[in-house]
Amino acid sequence: MPIPALTSTPVNAPVITIPQVSSPLYPCDCGCELTDDDVLEFLDSDDDWVSHQKVRAVTQHILDLREVCSFFDDHVNRSVKKFTPIALRYRPAMAAKAVREGANTWHGCPEELCSQTDSEPQSQDGKRE
Fold first, then answer.
1. For 50, which DSSP code?
2. Considering the domain boundaries, does residue 77 fall inside one?
3. Exposed (0-12), middle (13-18) or buried (19+): which is 34, by Cβ within 10 Å?
4. Pairing state between β 89-90 and 50-51
5. Phi-psi region of 17 (alpha: psi -120 to 50; beta: other; left: phi over 0)
6. Measured between alpha carbons, how far is 99 from 42 in angstroms, rounded to an integer?
7. Whole domain around residue 87: which residue ranges?
């Protein structure tokens, strides 16, 4: 059976667009902006994987938050989902994008909706206090 000749007509492959990290909601006056390299220093990028918990903890650290609630956890999850499905661990480059997205787009907890009874505060190591 003869092999069909290949045509030079390109196949219509789907175009894959990679989401970009959002610009900061509250940019610094000095013009500095958090980069993936900055975040990788916090993530210990020598590891092959970064846990979801570490993504959350590093985002909390970068934002200098002493305590967080379920609104923050949801925000970090949405930041991760912009780039990849939620998982137990991520490659460092993907984790860095998620942390930058989370840090750039966090606008604070809606205090009137947040209460200590709904979600216990968490320390920076992620343990419930």
1. E
2. yes
3. middle
4. antiparallel
5. beta
6. 10
7. 36-105
CB 19 within 8 A of CB 80: no
HSE-up (13 A, CA, CB side) for residue 29: 0
Contacts of 55 (CB under 8 A, 6+ apart): 43, 76, 80, 90, 95, 98, 99, 102
- The Cα–Cα gap between 109 and 119 comes to 12
Query: Per the domain annotation, does 114 fall within a domain?
Result: no
CB 84 within 8 A of CB 64: no
- Within-domain flag for 91: yes
Burial of 73 (0-12, 13-18, 19+ CB in 10 A): middle
Is 63 within the bounds of a domain?
yes
Predicted structure pTM score: 0.73
Number of domain units in the chain: 1
Spatial CA neighbour of 100 closest among 19, 22, 27? 22
Quick: pLDDT tens for 8-17: 555 676 777 7
pLDDT digits (tens, 9 = 90+) for 13-41: 677 777 888 888 877 777 678 888 889 98
